[in-house]
């Protein structure tokens, strides 16, 4: 090979290393990327050994590939600008320099020597500029923490210019990420997202996980501040995954703290506190004082905003403020001042609170933090309103509203609109107030739609019910002044808008999911996690004797719950699903068309702070009532319940039953002239009240008549979460009738691990309550009494159905795997006579206990989430167990429990119980109920007649409402269930008929013989 060729090749290999190799490798995998890598590695080894001869051979062997990569650059010459556009790793720079020096010594080529000198000068310049850019970034970060946002931005742009010139993509991403964060705090969200997404693409392009995580965290903050909580949580989940993969504990703590902020916004305060505590623990270990103080501040906010613990809040916030002042962190110090002022104002110290709020407002205006400036204005307005300065308050609210529009921040906008409405109402400008309240509801509901997970939607509205109460209260006042302007119907529409909305969304989603043929990977993961969580709850029930073991199981539960929520967030943020799961509540006219028959009456209650609002809706009329002193009514319900399980206290029970009837519905029933069914849509503690057992006459009127006139004697009574939900369930019933082909699937008296006989030496009495297990914090493991009458119940009910159209599973056969393997879409009625488990602390830990065996696939505990995954097509689910109508109460959503979950799974109607029921009387009531169903009665009529049968029993003990009142029907109630009863000619009946026939024949024969025989 000629020397000139070698020289050309040497220049080519140098250029390949300096320019082509890095560019190709950074561009991602290609057809020759593996070759480039190998060549680079071998060349480096040869240089390290000083093997010049082999290096030249390597160049010769690969000359064609090298030429393809570098010839064009060789011929055009090297431009410093071209080199400067590349991002070269430190090792690549050093290797290229060493190659250049080696070539220049070996071949003594002037071109190569010039190249080497030129490259060395460029490398030194690059190193100096890199140091300068890194210094600028550090300066920008310091300015950001001091809340000097404009200076921080200008410094970022200087650093970005140098990093761009150097081709340092990692540095460019850091500059853009910091600029995006600064724009966020200035309230310039579009610019912030643009910069952060550019940073994210750069970090992902070079595979820099830490940078990607920081970008995602900052993007999540924007989603949070603009009210897109579903996207915020999903983005944070990815950030947390990255921090755990890289082992960066500081960033993990940041993610945990931001989770806390979002859950606080949504209304899940205890979960928020848990995340804050986890973050503080990590930050304290690492000595991160600023970050620890931020989460201390957040803990303080939860204590005063949501737990009303003002002194604790001020203590936490004051500690945080001292830290921020010491660090010179103006933004965080301003936020702490605002929260301290708000805590003082909420506790009634308005003047002192306003002083702190004004200091915070001054800081936010000084540093240009528009979001927190608006927050401070809202609190200043609220405090001035409490002080009676309504004009100043209104000025503050309008200023906050304008900033909210400028920032496109729905969270700020709806709060400002609500406060403006409240101020107008206090000033007597009622129409203006109504418009502002209506605008606030529209803005708030736009935020709710963005949350893709049902549990989060439910809690989101629960701490914002005050807005709906405000508009309903105002509409009642307007209705009293102008009764014919439709304010009553408008008030009803707002009641529906805040009632069981996430449940309505979830019902639509369940229909959508059922229509999908292909199960996604996320759905498969979700099902596996649900099964795991159920197994953990089962372990807690059966094995939680030792405290250490209980804590370990709870830790596993928490991790599994977090992972499940992460998966549901990923499923829930799909745009198609969001659109599908946002059905609108129905109007009054639609409700009347779909629900009410002539003579029927809907009673919808809305529980306010100290008033209850009631709408009585018939086929052609609506009446709007305000029931004063809601607290007295709620206390009366508690007293009434306390008398219910003591059968010796009939007189107090009757008195309180009549009192509640008078307070809650006597006027509505009288004025509406109802003659048909009652549909009760309760709120608050009314969910726990059996209206059937209310007494319609005063105790004085009963002295002459021993028969107690319960409401059930004159009306069929049904319950529903909301009128709109009920219409949806009615439509589901129409589909069920068309497709279900079998009648009864029943599970009774399952064998549970740890089950024991109820008693020894005596028969169980009706005063024994044995069908409930209440999960509490202390008693582990739980014991499960044998249900002595559950088997009898299912056996007696089964006889009412045709053999070929029923499936009965008793004792060891009443297993979870049997239920899941059953063709549940084919049964019209599914009946459980088993133990119910109520866990109000952790709703997912509620469920039904079926038979326990050693099958590792199923544990015997049918949890709420497993029930939700059943695909039912039934007319009716009967939960013949204790307290199956109870669960966690969430304002605006109602009871999150078994009835709601079975409806989500596909049942339009569910029979549940409101208290701990007696085993024997439950069995007797259920047998009577099913007998009525089989005879063709409507569901609500069948249950009513079964209760009346109990009241007419020859056993006076069954007359007490403790035995017949706990079971109520929730959901669709009008349609009878088409059931094929058994043939009347069973073997027993045939034998009886034959016996009667033979006996009759004998008697007849004797008579004939006697008639025909001659007299003696």
Automatic annotation (TrEMBL):
<feature type="domain" description="CHAT">
    <location>
        <begin position="659"/>
        <end position="972"/>
    </location>
</feature>
<feature type="transmembrane region" description="Helical">
    <location>
        <begin position="989"/>
        <end position="1008"/>
    </location>
</feature>
<dbReference type="InterPro" id="IPR011990">
    <property type="entry name" value="TPR-like_helical_dom_sf"/>
</dbReference>
<feature type="repeat" description="TPR">
    <location>
        <begin position="334"/>
        <end position="367"/>
    </location>
</feature>
<dbReference type="InterPro" id="IPR024983">
    <property type="entry name" value="CHAT_dom"/>
</dbReference>
<keyword id="KW-0472">Membrane</keyword>
<feature type="repeat" description="TPR">
    <location>
        <begin position="253"/>
        <end position="286"/>
    </location>
</feature>
<protein>
    <submittedName>
        <fullName>CHAT domain-containing protein</fullName>
    </submittedName>
</protein>
<dbReference type="Pfam" id="PF12770">
    <property type="entry name" value="CHAT"/>
</dbReference>
<dbReference type="InterPro" id="IPR019734">
    <property type="entry name" value="TPR_rpt"/>
</dbReference>
<keyword id="KW-0802">TPR repeat</keyword>
<dbReference type="Pfam" id="PF13181">
    <property type="entry name" value="TPR_8"/>
</dbReference>
<dbReference type="Pfam" id="PF13424">
    <property type="entry name" value="TPR_12"/>
</dbReference>
<keyword id="KW-1133">Transmembrane helix</keyword>
<keyword id="KW-0812">Transmembrane</keyword>
């Amino acid at each position: 090979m000629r020397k000139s060729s070698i020289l050309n090749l040497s220049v080519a290999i140098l250029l390949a290393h300096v320019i082509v190799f890095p560019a190709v490798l950074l561009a991602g995998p290609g057809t020759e990327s593996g070759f480039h890598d190998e060549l680079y590695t071998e060349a480096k080894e040869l240089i390290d050994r000083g093997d010049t001869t082999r290096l030249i051979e390597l160049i010769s062997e690969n000359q064609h590939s090298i030429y393809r990569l570098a010839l064009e650059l060789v011929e055009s010459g090297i431009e410093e600008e071209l080199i400067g556009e590349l991002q070269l790793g430190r090792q690549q720079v050093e290797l290229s320099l060493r190659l250049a020096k080696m070539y220049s010594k070996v071949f003594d080529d002037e071109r190569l020597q010039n190249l080497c000198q030129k490259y060395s000068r460029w490398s030194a310049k690059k190193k100096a500029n890199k140091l300068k850019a890194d210094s600028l970034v550090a300066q920008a970060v310091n300015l950001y923490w001091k809340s000097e946002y404009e200076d921080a931005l200008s410094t970022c742009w200087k650093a970005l210019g140098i990093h761009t010139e150097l081709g340092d993509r990692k540095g460019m991403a850091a500059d853009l990420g910091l600029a995006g964060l600064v724009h966020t705090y200035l309230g310039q969200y579009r610019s912030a997202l643009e910069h952060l997404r550019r940073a994210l693409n750069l970090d992902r392009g070079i595979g820099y996980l830490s940078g990607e995580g920081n970008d995602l965290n900052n993007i999540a903050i924007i989603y949070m501040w603009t009210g897109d909580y579903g996207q915020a949580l999903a983005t944070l989940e990815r950030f947390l995954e990255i921090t755990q993969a890289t082992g960066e504990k500081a960033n993990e703590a940041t993610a945990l703290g931001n989770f806390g902020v979002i859950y606080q916004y949504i209304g899940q305060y205890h979960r928020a506190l848990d995340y804050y505590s986890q973050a503080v623990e990590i930050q304290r270990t690492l000595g991160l004082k600023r970050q620890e103080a931020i989460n201390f501040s957040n803990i303080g906010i939860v204590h005063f905003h949501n737990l009303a613990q003002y002194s604790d809040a001020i203590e936490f916030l004051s500690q945080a403020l001292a830290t921020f002042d010491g660090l010179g962190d103006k933004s965080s110090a301003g936020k702490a001042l605002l929260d301290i002022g708000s805590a003082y104002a909420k506790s009634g110290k308005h003047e002192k609170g306003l002083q702190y709020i004004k200091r915070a407002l001054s800081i936010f205006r000084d540093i240009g933090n528009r979001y927190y400036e608006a927050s401070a204005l809202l609190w200043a307005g609220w405090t001035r309103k409490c002080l009676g300065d309504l004009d100043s308050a209104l000025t503050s609210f309008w200023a906050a509203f304008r900033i909210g529009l400028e920032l496109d921040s729905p969270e700020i906008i709806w709060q400002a609109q609500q406060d403006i409405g409240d101020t107008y109402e206090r000033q007597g400008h009622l129409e203006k107030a109504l418009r502002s309240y209506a605008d606030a509801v529209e803005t708030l509901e736009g935020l709710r739609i963005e949350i893709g997970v049902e549990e989060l939607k439910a809690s989101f509205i629960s701490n914002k019910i005050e807005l709906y109460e405000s508009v309903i209260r105002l509409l009642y006042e307007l209705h009293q002044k102008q009764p014919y302007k439709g304010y009553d119907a408008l008030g009803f529409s707002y009641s529906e808008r805040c009632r069981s909305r996430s449940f309505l969304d979830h019902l639509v989603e369940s229909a959508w999911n059922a229509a999908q043929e292909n199960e996604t990977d996320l759905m498969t993961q979700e099902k596996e996690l649900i099964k795991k969580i159920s197994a953990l709850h089962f372990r807690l029930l059966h094995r939680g004797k030792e405290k250490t073991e209980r804590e370990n199981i709870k830790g596993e539960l928490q991790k599994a719950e977090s992972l499940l929520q992460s998966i549901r967030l990923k499923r829930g943020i799909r745009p198609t699903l969001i659109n599908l799961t946002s059905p609108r509540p129905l109007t009054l006219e639609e409700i009347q068309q779909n629900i009410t028959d002539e003579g029927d009456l809907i009673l919808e209650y809305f529980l306010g702070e100290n008033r209850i609002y009631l709408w009585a809706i018939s086929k052609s009329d609506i009446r709007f009532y305000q029931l004063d002193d809601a607290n007295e009514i709620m206390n009366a319900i508690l007293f009434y319940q306390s008398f219910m399980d003591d059968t010796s206290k009939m007189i107090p029970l009757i008195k309180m039953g009549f009192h509640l009837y008078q307070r809650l519905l006597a006027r509505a029933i009288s004025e509406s002239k109802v003659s048909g069914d009652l549909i009760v849509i309760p709120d608050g503690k009314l969910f726990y009240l059996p209206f059937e057992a209310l007494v319609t006459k005063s105790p004085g009127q009963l002295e002459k008549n021993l028969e107690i006139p319960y409401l059930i004697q004159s009306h069929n009574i049904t319950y529903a979460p909301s009128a709109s939900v009920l219409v949806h369930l009615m439509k589901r019933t129409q589909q069920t009738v068309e497709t279900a082909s079998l009648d009864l699937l029943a599970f009774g008296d399952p064998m549970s691990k740890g089950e024991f006989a109820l008693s020894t030496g005596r028969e169980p009495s009706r005063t024994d309550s044995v069908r409930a297990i209440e999960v509490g914090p202390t008693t582990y493991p739980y014991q499960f009494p044998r249900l002595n009458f559950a088997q009898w119940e299912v056996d007696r009910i089964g006889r009412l159905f045709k053999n070929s159209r029923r499936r009965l599973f008793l004792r060891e056969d009443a297993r979870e795997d049997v239920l899941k393997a059953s063709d549940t879409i084919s049964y019209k009625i599914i009946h459980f006579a088993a133990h119910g488990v109520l866990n109000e602390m952790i709703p997912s830990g509620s469920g039904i206990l079926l038979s326990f065996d050693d099958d590792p696939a199923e544990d015997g505990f049918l949890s709420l989430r497993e029930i939700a995954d059943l695909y039912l097509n039934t007319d009716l689910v009967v939960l013949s167990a204790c307290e199956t109508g109870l669960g966690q109460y969430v304002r605006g959503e109602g009871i999150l429990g078994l009835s709601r979950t079975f409806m989500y799974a596909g049942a339009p109607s569910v029979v549940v119980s409101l208290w701990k029921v007696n085993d024997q009387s439950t069995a007797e009531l259920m047998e009577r109920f099913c007998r009525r169903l089989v005879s063709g009665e409507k569901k609500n009529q069948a249950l009513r007649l079964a209760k009346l049968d109990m009241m007419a029993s020859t056993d006076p003990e069954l007359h007490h409402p403790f035995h017949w009142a706990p079971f109520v029907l929730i959901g669709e109630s009008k349609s009878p269930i088409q059931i094929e009863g058994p043939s009347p000619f069973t073997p027993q009946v045939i034998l009886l008929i034959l016996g009667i026939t033979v006996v009759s024949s004998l008697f007849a024969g004797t008579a004939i013989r006697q008639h025909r025989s001659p007299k003696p």
